[in-house]
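Figure caption, in words: inputs first, then the predicted bound structure.
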Amino acid sequence: MKIFKDGITVGAHPALFLPKYGTLVIADLHIGYESSLGQKGVFLPQNSYTAIRNRIEELLRATGAKKLAILGDLKHEFGKPSPQEWVEVKDLLETLGAMGVETHVVRGNHDNYVIAILSRYGVHLHEHFLMMDHIVLTHGHLEMDLPENAKVILIGHEHPAVSSLDSSGARYKFKCFLVGKCRGKRLVVLPAFSPLSAGSGINEIDREDLLSPYLRKSDIDEFVPLAVEDGIGIFRFPPIGVMRRIRKGDGANGQGRNQYI
Ligand SMILES: [Mn+2]
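Bound structure (manganese (II) ion present):
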């Protein structure tokens, strides 16, 4: 599905492909999330990294992309990488190197100690943003002055999802892209690539609880969620403002429960 002039979705995956630039774009891998949860007493099987790596390989092969742009939060821990993170980040970079892929990482708010590892593997690290003609690729946690010729902004950070109720009252949540406008430019928010992140239901949270300043300064009601669900497909929901009104209309008689599912 075409999201903007030079950007298309890849199947029902949380990734964008820019054919003109031969570049696959993903965001928010949060490698090492399991060990961080483990320290809090929540123990998950440590297999999300394998799923992440396999999916990246599959998407690179499917698209024929020679470049990979990671829009920040490659790893999870804010501080020094945990042993799990070291092993997994190194393995990912070695895998990409062996595939001959040129990898670019734009720094996210979780990526504090990542530079030392990246430079050893020839990865291009971008402190603030990466530009491809008129397209800005950035993490989205900090607002910055963008070049005048910027027409499209791609961000991560928000981990967007959209939630919906079916006629029985069951609640479903889907990871989604968010597509809208920010200060006259096209803004596309990518869903988190991490399979452990269910995402934050953008139609349920208050505007001031949005994480990214780009979204807080936009009219979030006008944004259109494009849900990506493995094995099901990609589907367009009504704009967030309509979704919010539907939720507010949820009454005891069930009126207003939406039919978008
Ligand atoms: Mn982030």
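The chain has a mean pLDDT of 88.
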